[in-house]
Amino acid sequence: MSSLYDRHKAVIPDWVALYYKDPIEITHGEGRHVWDSEGRKYLDFFGGILTTMTAHALPEVTKAVAEQAGRIIHSSTLYLNRPMVELAERIAGLSGIPDARVFFTTSGTEANDTALLLATAYRRSNQILAMRNSYHGRSFSTVGITGNRTWSPTGLSPLQTLYVHGGVRTRGPYAQYTDERFTEACVADLEDLIGHTRDVAALIAEPIQGVGGFTSPPDGLYAAFRQVLDRHGILWISDEVQTGWGRTGDNFWGWQAHGQAGPPDILTFAKGIGNGMSVGGVVARAEIMNCLDASSISTFGGSPVTMAAGLANLGHLLENDLQGNARRVGGLLIERIRAACAGVDAVREVRGRGLMIGIELTEPGTDRANREAAGAVAEAARENGLLIGKGGGHSTSTLRIAPPLSLTVAEAEEGAAALEQALGVL
């Protein structure tokens, strides 16, 4: 009989990537651990690409999903939906956006797609500013604005996109500057860029670039950008698909590290809110959200089952202060990882905040990405019972570490030790 891997290759597109030379089938999980089909247990430091935000098999979520499924699974947005309204009320209140409206989607890609639709309709412009090294999804419109060649398979797009400096602090023409001077230079670049465009609809930016390898600008950069954008009437879209819900520890939303000029005009979210269920969404103030002059619905966005999961998961996260746990345990974890990486010539930088940590690997003594080293460490970590992710800009050479936010101190120590051992392959 053919292996599951052989069957996968026979029916799934070649461009659907799998981790590991010998891919694993994850069959079940509990807490911060998962098991594969051969019964091997792993400490999960990637959480389904930052999606299993609180814990695997969280009782509150599984109970809410089962109870809602026993009542009704689906109705669509054509009918009143109590769980959807209740979750929208909570998110609107948490968003920081005044007079907020919430539209639910099934993914972060669809959320960003909706945000682009709203911004271009509101501003009557198809000109978009995005950040270099960014990632915003896999739909036709979102790959067209993604500033990362690895994840952008076509240059065709319904949008005209120009890319701004600033999303990566330690690379590029301003890397040698102080934080203050870096911000000034990026603002000057933005001002200059706007001078060469037609009317711009929006700037879309991840507060911490996820797929790009957990890179970020100095705190306050997007607040400085916002002052420029406001003078031109340009909207700010904060892509919080990976940074939302307290993952960064210091803030509930990534934009709050840049909040001196107020909240974004539009905020997108997904991944962790459903703890594995397919939930995404957009928050915007009413005048922007209501600007569409045609009817629209979502067949599956706001599903009663996914909304029940989101409500239970958000409640658990807030009641147990998982943001605070991400700050405390994440602070310990990054220090343990920095200690493990000390003296490893291939490690260019350890960066991140909260439970969102990146280790960039390069060819020793250079800034050239070392994709082979990243793959080797990920394989070795897996052999040591630790699952981690990969990312990065010019090449996939950054190890991405993003455990569920309920990670314990003991598990952080265990994961750091496994990672230190895996780094020994370099």
Order of helices and strands: HEEEHHHEHEHEHEHEEEHHHEEHEEEH
Biggest pleated sheet: 7 strands, mixed
Widest sheet: strand order?
A: 4-10-9-8-7-5-6
User: Whole-Å distance between the termini?
Assistant: 37 Å
Mean pLDDT: 96
Count of DSSP-assigned helices: 13
Number of strands: 15
Low-confidence stretches: none
Rg computed from alpha carbons, rounded to a whole number of angstroms: 21 Å
Percent helix: 25-40%
Structural class: alpha/beta
Q: Give the DSSP E fraction (strand runs of 2 or more residues).
A: 15-25%
Using the alpha-carbon principal axes, give the shape: globular
Provide key terms for this protein.
7-stranded mixed sheet, alpha/beta, 426 residues
Summarize the structure.
By secondary structure, the protein is an alpha/beta fold.
Protein model, in words:
The protein is of the alpha/beta class. It has helices spanning 4-11, 47-50, 59-71, 82-95, 108-123, 140-145, 179-194, 221-232, 286-289, 304-319, 322-341, 371-383, 409-422, and strands spanning 26-30, 33-36, 41-44, 100-105, 127-131, 160-164, 202-205, 235-239, 266-269, 280-285, 347-352, 357-361, 386-387, 389-391, 398-401. Helix 3 runs antiparallel to helix 10 (304-319), helix 4 packs across helix 10 and helix 12 crosses helix 13. The two termini are 37 Å apart. The mean pLDDT is 96.
Write the layout of secondary structure elements.
Blueprint: H1 4-11, E1 26-30, E2 33-36, E3 41-44, H2 47-50, H3 59-71, H4 82-95, E4 100-105, H5 108-123, E5 127-131, H6 140-145, E6 160-164, H7 179-194, E7 202-205, H8 221-232, E8 235-239, E9 266-269, E10 280-285, H9 286-289, H10 304-319, H11 322-341, E11 347-352, E12 357-361, H12 371-383, E13 386-387, E14 389-391, E15 398-401, H13 409-422
Parallel strand pairs: 3-13, 5-6, 5-7, 7-8, 8-9
Antiparallel strand pairs: 1-2, 2-3, 4-10, 9-10, 11-12, 12-15, 14-15
Helix pairs in contact: 3-10, 4-10, 7-8, 11-13, 12-13
